[in-house]
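Researcher: For the record, we're logging two predictions in this thread. I'll number them. Prediction 1 follows.
Model: Prediction 1, sequence and structure:
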Amino acid sequence: MKHEITIRGLEDLDNAAGEFLRETSGSRIIAFFAPMGAGKTTFTAALCRRLGVEGDAVSSPTFAIVNEYRTGAGESLFHFDFYRIGKPEEALDIGLYDYLDSGCYCIIEWPENIGGLLPEEALKVGIRVNPDESRTVFWED
């Protein structure tokens, strides 16, 4: 089934993140496919807020590759940004499968840069920038 959530502006982000988490309940590996500037990190920050990550801790891990946050339930949440990955093996070098097999939330930006390393159970999510600058988050299950 196809799903879509439209985000008209920043004021819609937290509600959209809550709806996304309700509709994707059970998905722990979430891969965002979207162009530069589409709002991957911004939406990830909203998801983290809804999961109880405190403060303004969420930022793009472009240079670190992975950031770890704590949810309100005390669980780890791993946020990956593979924009600067030159080859998929670099993701293996940071222990990608250890993170993915942890059972914790793993939110991945630029998953296309790690080739076939993305597990089959990963939820593949797109973000589309609409002509009116709103965003549509979409996926299939």
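Researcher: Logged. Prediction 2.
Model: Prediction 2, sequence and structure:
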Amino acid sequence: MANAGIIGAGSWGTALALLLHKNGHQVTVWSISEAEVKMLSEKREHETKLPGVPLPEDMIFTSDMEEAVHDKDFVVMAVPSPYTRTTARNLKPFVKDGQIIIDVAKGIEEATLMTLSQQIEEEIPQADVAVLSGPSHAEEVGRGLPTTVVIGAKTKKTAEYLQSMFMNEVFRVYTSPDILGMELGGSLKNVIALAAGIADGMGYGDNTKAALITRGIAEIARLGVKMGGAVETFSGLTGIGDLIVTCASVHSRNRKAGYLMGQGKSMQEAMDEVKMVVEGVYSTKAAVKLGEKYGVSLPIISKVNEVLFEGKDPKEAVNELMLRDSRAEHKALPWKE
């Protein structure tokens, strides 16, 4: 049995806390909100983020960060991406040398273009930082529905240790050394999911969705490989797998926000209605900057950025995508003359 700390009591942090508890581990969950801690402790249910999922009596909830980190075998960082850096900075005094921190959020910091694990490493250099990613909506993991994810770590030892902590009969875990590729896939798919939602909101069909998913992963892989990620990662669970579920699922906050914008609501109105952090909105500008930095064409992501921040009409953006210069699908495939 391990002793695990969960930093962040949202839907994903709560679902993973429940998973780890079912695996026989002692779990302490931290929230910055005293009201949330009180609700979780007394109701034994996250009434707003994970309703209908009972939480065990021996699961500990606290607003004391040191209590959630001290003497823990590993710590799960489950705060929304805009708060990763500040939370890591506050966490640093309580983290011992070599303590494992596994980030489970997805995003890129606009100001620095750093992934979340890179931000954590910068703020907590003494930590052994890993990531967990894949097609894994909290609503389904909390209910024990079969799910498959990937653990990325710098060493095989850390990856396999965490694999053994999380894996069970309904939560299959693979390992990977490609942390960068995993994080880029997990972050940028949220931007494509906004596009998929916008298309749904405008009444477009399955053909449009398939095109966005297929060409979206092409954009993500082009950039990811140029930045040093492995091409195999983008054809796996944390690439195309995560992209499919986020573009199609009713649980996807990014798709939902896009859907509302496709129906005519502003970005802020859509985010207010979703009532959760829409990670793709925060990653879009960073993605455009990464494309410019590495000289990679990102047509879908660029149009999402124009819709979100430059007032571009979504229908006009779709027309411009469709009317771009004609080209071959895969330039590397030769013609037999």
